[in-house]
Design brief:
Number of domains: 1
Distance between the termini: 25 Å
Structural class: mainly alpha
Radius of gyration: 17 Å
Number of helices: 4
Order of helices and strands: HHHH
Helix content: 40-55%
Length: 132
């Protein structure tokens, strides 16, 4: 997540430019990585987390849902690529939540390096493909 006001403003502008999604500074979707649940207390509902509207009625509500979908899809595709490149993300991770964060950040850094070096995605065996 952005640490400074400038980073938050930059992220907010990027989300708006992609999907007319106002005042959004980041996106989270932990459902793409299997982790052992630390319990319900570890995933409290926050006022700043946005989920799609269940039954949109107005044009603004439809736009809100469409904006969320358009910004979420690239994140989903990124996680699918990471799981192919780093199978640890395709299977259940049995670490404390803080350590899982470190693993995910490390895979993001390594994936960025692989992209810079023009490395192809590895071939995936059947078991890994089923997990992804």
């Amino acid at each position: 997540m952005p640490a400074t006001e400038d980073e938050r403003n930059s992220n907010s502008n990027k989300f708006y430019n992609v999907a007319r999604f106002p005042k959004c500074i980041g996106a989270v979707d932990y459902s793409h990585i299997k982790i052992s649940s630390p319990g319900d207390g570890g995933y409290g509902i926050k006022h700043y987390l946005l989920t799609p509207l269940g039954n949109p009625h107005t044009p603004a509500e439809w736009l809100c849902n469409e904006s969320q979908i358009r910004t979420r899809n690239p994140i989903e595709r990124t996680f699918e690529i990471w799981k192919r490149r780093f199978p640890v993300l395709a299977f259940e991770i049995r670490l404390k939540l803080r350590k899982v964060e470190t693993v995910v950040v490390a895979t993001a850094v390594l994936d960025s390096i692989a992209i810079l070096l023009n490395k192809d995605l590895p071939l995936v065996n059947a078991e890994e493909e089923a997990a992804v």
